């Protein structure tokens, strides 16, 4: 150090303030968002878009694609294109509501656990660990089978079992947030725990919750398809999983070329939807998670 | 020897104006001066010091004097001009304030000293001249000054001549009214030495009136404190100056410049009361930081101070027994357990007290436990042992939401972190009020604007609606200060409040903090590793090392005569960094000296 530097070294350096990071989403995020919006529109306007009532028997069984039935008909003469279009509804509905249930539970339990600490934290986290360890699908099948097949059951079963991983992430985040000086400052003004959680923690958690919500919605949509495929869904709801199930029930199905317009579209749409959710989720997470953000 | 009982001096305004209230220059002062004792009287200008001297001499004109004064058991006829002549000069002599104008410019000094000797002692002219020459020699004036006119003498010489005149009739009591006012330090020191020598030789009793505490400290055994015509405190000079009990004395002593005192001097907040219309109850109450309802209602009488103070004949007129200890931290201990059995003792047996209205600096290297101590005091962490008492109430181990906690506010080190980026300036500062549900929304917003103005920030809606990311570090820290103020705390704990700011912003913020602390009558614990900063604001400095307070004394003593080796090394290290002044200045000075 030069002499001058030594002489003045007690002068504090001005730290550059960390200005708000410009949110830059990866390109895949936008792709995923466009696909999601597309499915959203299809689901929303299904009655208008669908050429036929998917429940009506207005064709011959196992028709080949034609101008009237673009994707042909199933074994009982229902229009397959309409079935696919209405299937988007179920997938989105279950995905979004079940994910919402998971996110709310995860947020509540995680913030309470992390903020309170001590034995409350320990107890809640052991329950979380337990749920993470138990294989999800078998448990879900079991529960769905016992609870009976209905849309509400599907949503609840998926939602109630989907929160543990997110809870872990949120808890870690709250643990670091609650030590922040501005949160401590609020406590010094006499703020109660609900106030701090509502006013300081939840707003700070929103990006992570949004990312978690989208990712979970994708998972939930897939779970729904899985349950429907196994026959544990509402048999009256035209969902993609159910479409595949019915197709596979037809004897000697794969000997013909029906699978091209019966199974393939359903599988393709399901894959597209999950991919879209994943893209959006990854994009949000890239922005929300400080650790990923720093490495970019 | 001298006893003053309940002395009142009220100046009445012009007789035709009956509506005007009398000016109460002295309002019930009682004190005693023992044989051979020197009593100091201190107080701000206008506190009644000079009136007391004049009253003892029977020289107050146009005033009503009540009360009794006894000298050797004989009552002084204070209001009887004719009989007072028997006392004046002969038994009680006064060396007037501003000796310059007390002499008659048309007579020589010699003639003026001779005059009282002839009139009071009835000496012959020759004998009187001989005595006057002797007196002038005694006070250290050269012989030729006898024939000089007052304007030919310097200020110090006139003061000496004045003392010679006061001594002319060997009085039993000598009153020195501001003997050194307006004199330079060397002259002052010589004059004080002279008075000490005279006192040693004559063993007469003295009353020294001065606003210079340094003179009082050297000359007086006991000291009384006057304020607005009343006596607030009396006791041994050492105790009064080193450990003042009355809030006023404390303020007065702390405003006194010492060569080793490095903090900025601020004086006592507010102004002395109008003597024609003094406040009810305690006269100091409007400026006091610890006044309670009783202080506004009842006049406090002199009594023993609280237990924390030395009691060497000390009396203090304060309903609360003197300056209160606001925060008392006792044997505080905090152990952090990290990974298994390993423990770190962040704070061990820390003991510190902060008095009402006081700024205590807490210094120590990083990791010495300063911040942990702050967090323990405010309650962000729970101590493992020890107690934290705030205004007598135990806080350790109690919930953060307790009322008492609100009166202690913490200013964090990093304003970027301490202020939520999601709230606007208005929301940030209003938050404490929102949480406490104080007042209507409108009241809250008014208070936000008030504290913003107090920290010199704009109060326009455009600023109130801004978020923190566009503001500078200095502005943010001011916002943090404003937010801490909005609940009107009694104690501010500032944990490294300027370490994130550049030198200029940091200087401004420190001055702001000190001003607010002084104006609002708060106490402050100023935490910093920077001794150079702490010494600018702290009344007392606590040095912390390895979780322990190793030294805790008045800051000028810590800085000029550190006791603990750690403090010594801390000061040495700061000096090594700060001492080399810019070389250009040094060489300039050298060339000046040589030419």
List keywords for this structure.
heterodimer, A: 296 residues, mainly alpha, MetI-like fold, 13 helices, 71% helix, B: 595 residues, alpha/beta, Rossmann fold, seven-stranded mixed beta sheet, six-stranded mixed beta sheet, 22 helices, elongated
- Superfamily at the CATH H level of chain A? MetI-like
Proportion of residues in β-strands of chain A:
under 5%
The first-to-last residue Cα distance of chain B is 61 Å
- What is Rg of chain B? 29 Å
CATH class of chain A reads Mainly Alpha
CATH fold assignment of chain A:
MetI-like fold
Oligomerization category of the chains in this entry: heterodimer
CATH topology of the domain at 355-383 and 399-578 in chain B: Rossmann fold
- First-last Cα distance of chain A: 35 Å
Taking pLDDT < 50 over at least 5 consecutive residues as the criterion, the unreliable ranges of chain B are 583-595
Q: Which CATH class of the domain at 355-383 and 399-578 in chain B applies here?
A: Alpha Beta
At CATH level 2, the architecture of chain A is Orthogonal Bundle
The secondary structure category of chain A is mainly alpha
Instruction: Look at the structure and give the mean pLDDT of chain B.
Output: 86
SSE series of chain A: HHHHHHHHHHHHH
Gross geometry of chain B:
elongated
Structural class of chain B: alpha/beta
Which ranges of chain A are low-confidence, i.e. pLDDT below 50, for 5 or more consecutive residues?
5-21
